[in-house]
Amino acid sequence: MEIQLYNNFHLDKLCDLITQLKPHGHLDWPTDKTVTKNILSNFTSNPSISIRVLVNSNEISGYYLLEEEKNISRIVVCIGSTNKNDHNILLSHVLDNYKSNDNSGNIKIQFPTLKSQKTVNDYFRRSGLSKVRTYLKMDLDISHQMNFPKHETLTARKLKSTTEYKILADIQNEIFLSHWGYSPNTQKDITDMLQSFGNDPNLITIIANDQNDIVGYCWPTVYQEQETLTGKISMMGIKEEFRGNGYGKFAVETGLFILKSMGAQRVRLDVDSLNAKAVFLYKTIGFVTINELYWWEVRCPSQR
Ligand SMILES: CC(C)(COP(=O)(O)OP(=O)(O)OC[C@H]1O[C@@H](n2cnc3c(N)ncnc32)[C@H](O)[C@@H]1OP(=O)(O)O)[C@@H](O)C(=O)NCCC(=O)NCCS
Predict the structure, then answer these.
(1) Distance between CA atoms of residues 58 and 162, nearest Å
(2) 197, HSE (Cβ side, Cα atoms, 13 Å)
């Protein structure tokens, strides 16, 4: 049994494994292998992401995908494996190999797991990891007839051109900067994200008021889930000074309408359970919680 750095030679076997495993971690892996391959290729071209695979007699029985978010001092690791033993081998490998050269103890490693991953959650709890956050995974059926939402003072528009990626980065950073786990985006990050799987710049909606001020935005994405096209509200928000006027509801409803016009039947989203305003807003619109995502944390061991 050996842990190897992922390379293209592993692609087919890793896709087979990922599509066989039950849902795990924070990544919402698709059930379709071609799509999984695309996503893996995107990940491997991202220098902050590294993937390792557990190889056993030429077969892959587990993997971990690790993303370093240096500007918020954290490493996020998604582990997937066929059994408990392999999971623990991969976990030990992360803890043994990611030592921080910063002895302040500020760097943290986080392992997101789904509520349904009972054995792993019990193990993390018994091993003394802290559960620092719970995200709700919410779902809404949009198979019914929908009209474009109307508002007296707000308008919704698409991004005018790639020159507005900078505006999108600025709005997103302004709205989410104080949010737990948010790593600020550069214009290049935004460009890369918009080229990645499920994204389409035409889906992004900028919300403006009658003074032509940009008040917020909605960033929907789509992905195929077996026979169903599923939408996701990946990000959305209203600038602080414009909150509390019903604009958030308009932004989400605009996103839902766009997803519906793409042919989506369902819409998913992840929201921090402590984000009371957003949870309330989504529930008002009809979203229901279908799963929970736990964020387990451990301080990154120092090199000494
Ligand atoms: C969540 C957010 C979009 C809401 O925007 P908003 O324009 O203030 O939302 P709305 O005015 O449409 O209000 C939504 C509902 O929340 C309610 N609400 C307001 N403050 C609340 C609070 N502290 N707790 C619970 N509900 C609250 C409002 O009363 C309103 O309900 P109503 O329509 O029945 O009156 C906004 O706070 C935001 O951008 N937050 C930062 C980004 C974010 O969290 N995005 C979502 C997660 S991806």
Answers:
(1) 45
(2) 17
For the chain, the domains span: 2-135+294-299, 144-264
Q: Put residue 164 in one of left, alpha, beta given phi > 0 → left and psi -120 to 50 → alpha.
A: alpha
Nearest CA to ligand 1 atom 1: 278
Domains 2-135+294-299 and 144-264 fall in the same CATH topology: yes
**191 CB under 6 A from ligand 1?**
no
Nearest alpha carbon, ligand 1 atom 31: 281
273 Cβ inside 6 Å of ligand 1: no
Task: Please write the tens of the pLDDT for every residue from 3-43.
Answer: 999 999 999 999 999 999 999 999 989 888 888 998 998 89
Q: Any idea which fold 2-135+294-299 has?
A: Aminopeptidase (3.40.630)
Instruction: Find out whether the beta carbon of 249 lies less than 6 Å from any atom of ligand 1.
Output: yes
Average pLDDT over all residues of the chain = 94
**CATH fold for the domain made of 144-264:** Aminopeptidase (3.40.630)
Instruction: Say which range, 24-33, 229-238, 259-268, has the weakest mean pLDDT.
Output: 24-33
Task: Tell me the CA–centroid distance for residue 111 and ligand 1, in Å.
Answer: 28
Q: CB within 8 A of 186, min separation 6: which ones?
A: 169
